[in-house]
Amino acid sequence: MPTLPAVHVTTDRIDDLAVDALVVPVFRGAIEGPGTDVALRALGLTEMPRDAGFRGKPGEVRHLAAPDQPWGRVTLVGLGRLDELDTAMVRRAAGAAVRALAPTAATVATTLALVETSVASVQAAVEGALLGAYRYDDARSTPKPYRLTDVTLVVPSSLSDAAAAAVRRATAHARAQCVARDLVATPPNRLGPEEVAEWARDHLGAGGDRIEVEVWDEERLAAEGCGGLLAVAAGSARPPRLVRLRYRPADPVARVALVGKGITFDSGGISLKRPSSAMDAMKGDMAGAAAVLGVFSALADLELPIEVHGELCLAENMPSGSALLPSDVVRYRDGTTVEVRNTDAEGRLVLADGLLLAVESDVDAIVDVATLTGAVSQAVGRHAVGVFANDDDLLRQLLSAGQDAGEPSWHLPLWEELTVGLESEVADLNNIGDPALGAGASVGGLFLRHFVDGTPWAHLDIAGPAWLDSDGDHLSRHGTGVPVRTLLRWLEQAD
Predict the structure, then answer these.
(1) What is the CATH number of domain 182-492?
(2) Which residue among the candidates 135, 241, 283, 348 is catalytic per the annotation?
(3) Class of domain 6-154 as given by CATH
(4) Where are the domains of the chain?
(5) Catalytic annotation on 341?
């Protein structure tokens, strides 16, 4: 599990806080603003410091000396315009400031939770701070410098009790997201399908927290007719796994299933990715399964009253003499046959196994999470999740949860006209549709919809926001852990 700093709340005056650094929010172009003016005036400043590199834009950071103050230094962090403030800005600012301070400051306090007197602002500040504090050093012989151990939020006395509860909830959410980050960040030679299954057993199944973990090996997969996983893994020396998770609270108010794509490395198979640099991020092709594991790591702590099923579809997609071939036909447990026209469209092949099993579990709703298509980034950009659904209520719930979590999402269509492209002359379906029709992200969603048999279902295509090439505010380089907090907020809506 990731190591993160402890978070506390206080109603003390800021000049009573003896910390290495005090983080002060600054609005663009103004010293006035909640949580800002008291701290800056304590430094003898009557206007915002101005230079070419700091204007109070969202996420901007500037360090100031703090003579004659109990803080070692003051760190200004930009929030943008006051009239555009929302909790996403608070989250970003907390992440940017803590990321900048973590290597050198052991203790940090901030007035960020004062900019908007609400529990939501407290939760956003805590999430941002913890996500900004995240680092992955397990593969280094010598970890990078890192000192941070404690973060303190200054809150108004009227929010003292509610803020403490918000800290506990935010910590659970952020830690779950960092679990997903750790899994994506782990080098693929250390984390294949078997190792992911072992992680689930060790971290979820061994604590007695009402989570059951069942692992299907290749023999069980064959006996159960899980043709997608077996086909995709055929070219790898590492066998596939299906991990089945069950969180069973007493008297659940609903039953849902989360299905995660877990391609621990994707070379494209025989349809090899070109150029070779296209594989640089392919250890992140299991970000969907990592997100589901992150969610499950928090369920017991949050004591959610929903029964949650998880289906993790784990395989490595490699080329070899035994690999799946273009033109091969895959058969599924429900009898559906799929002609494989491109082995690099493998995610939908393995997800079909998990969706079929989720349907058989007789749940109220299914959400699958996958880095499924490059096309989704062309549609909505790298920062947003593409959301597809066959149920309007479920769609609205997920879009609302994403907005609350600060994880942007956008509804994309499942045009019926595109289904003609999924027809095959030799099988029931083909796995890529007709490229001439375009809309590759929607075609992927239509393929998956075939396997849910009318159960309320949503597909989250996270291929854009699940991976970043550089650190940014509260989001980490490489695996970001999106959309863990969206899923947790969605599950909490039934509470």
Answers:
(1) 3.40.630.10
(2) 348
(3) alpha beta
(4) 6-154, 182-492
(5) no
